[in-house]
UniProtKB/TrEMBL annotation:
The keyword Transcription applies. It comes from Bowdeniella nasicola. Keywords: DNA-binding, Transcription, Transcription regulation. Residues 9-63 form the HTH lacI-type domain. PROSITE patterns: HTH_LACI_1, HTH_LACI_2. InterPro entries: HTH_LacI, LacI/GalR-like_sensor, Lambda_DNA-bd_dom_sf, Peripla_BP_I. GO terms for molecular function: DNA-binding transcription factor activity; transcription cis-regulatory region binding. SUPFAM superfamilies: lambda repressor-like DNA-binding domains (SSF47413), Periplasmic binding protein-like I (SSF53822). The keyword Transcription applies. Pfam families: LacI (PF00356), Peripla_BP_3 (PF13377). This is HTH lacI-type domain-containing protein.
């Protein structure tokens, strides 16, 4: 067979070596289903022989796609690299994108984040967007609605713009049932004999934190118990440590704490140990997420499942389906489960 003489082989070279037309070679490179197995094999052999690399710029012009999925984490980079939930969710996105021709662009929120993200969308750099974390003042649902870009949220958006047909960007999410999770966690404390129950929440500008607190209050109300205190820990161990000291100072009678994330709960356990408050003998603690850290704390943490990797996988598949022309879909809500360990 003739070989290409150029240092940068073209699609025409691939077609010639494979013995097919340029159009057929193009369809095979794109992975279209109606190319015969024999033709696909011949084109793949030609690509390997020539060292051909598809011209993504030309393809982008032809398909109006960039082969890029933007992953948005509207958090400071310190949280991105310290919170195991984000590691799990990003791994889920990568797992879905790996066998495809889509690349991942990670956008992390800091000062000026919304302005930069809006400019990014306006420039048409992404085929779709997976939002892993956002806050009320980001206004990301409204921004994505305005640009009509395929998207999905990991976690329910706290405020959702509505369309006339009743379906909106805010419906395109995959999430754990956080209200049910808050109920499950608090019920565990009640069943373990706690009567003076407090909670350390996430930030109240996030739906997950709002819903977990709501579930906690529902469980207490059904048991006829008051909520001793609700203190915002910001989903960080530092925040939970400060709030635990405050809780022990103002409510020394506390005997049960529902903590809205395992990372925060690890901080709570550290403070309780330093203050010589025995867990679970004096105070019982339940976390949320079932992150790897939950099995490594002392004592090991009773918690509620929040499968970040699977949530992100499903959200990414929703985006890819929409990019491929399927109707937008959602929401998808996963039922959480209790994981009993030593802390409660």
């Amino acid at each position: 067979m003739p070989r290409a003489t150029s240092n940068a082989p073209t699609l025409e070279d691939v077609a010639r070596v494979a013995g097919v037309s340029r159009a057929t070679a193009s369809r095979a490179v794109r992975g279209e289903a109606f190319v015969s197995p024999a033709t696909k094999e011949a084109v793949e052999a030609a690509i390997k022989e020539l060292g051909y690399v598809p011209n993504r710029m030309a393809r982008s012009l032809a398909t109006k796609q960039t082969d890029t999925i933007a992953v948005v984490v509207s958090e400071p980079d310190s949280r991105l690299f310290s919170d195991p939930f984000f590691a799990a969710t990003i791994a889920g996105v990568v797992e879905v994108l790996e066998p495809t021709d889509k690349n991942l662009t990670l956008m992390v929120g800091n000062l000026g984040f919304r302005r930069k993200f809006e400019a990014y969308l306006r420039s048409g750099y992404a085929d779709g967007v997976v939002v892993i974390s956002h806050h009320e003042d980001d206004h990301l649902p409204r921004l994505l609605e305005a640009f009509k870009i395929p998207c999905a949220f990991v976690g329910r958006p706290i405020h959702t713009p509505r369309q006339d047909d009743g379906f909106s960007v805010g419906d395109r999410f995959v999430d754990t049932d956080n209200i049910a999770g808050g109920r499950i966690a608090t019920t565990r404390l009640i069943e373990a004999g706690c009567t003076q129950i407090a909670t350390i929440t996430g930030p109240m500008d996030m739906a997950a934190a709002v819903d977990r607190l709501k579930g906690c209050k529902q469980a207490l109300a059904e048991a006829g118990l008051p909520l001793l205190a609700a203190l915002p820990g910001g989903f960080t161990p530092e925040g939970s440590q400060v709030k635990t000291l405050e809780l022990l100072r103002d409510h020394p009678e506390v005997d049960g704490i529902f903590v809205a994330s395992d990372l925060m709960a690890a901080g709570v356990l550290g403070v309780l140990h330093a203050q010589d408050r025995k867990v679970p003998e004096q105070i019982k603690v339940v976390g949320f997420d079932n992150a790897e850290i939950a099995a490594a704390t002392v004592p090991a943490l009773t918690t509620v499942t929040n499968p970040g990797r699977e949530l992100a996988r499903r959200a990414t598949m929703m985006v890819l389906d929409e990019v491929a022309g399927a109707p937008a879909s959602g929401p998808v809500i996963v039922t959480p489960e209790l994981v009993v360990r030593d802390s409660a």
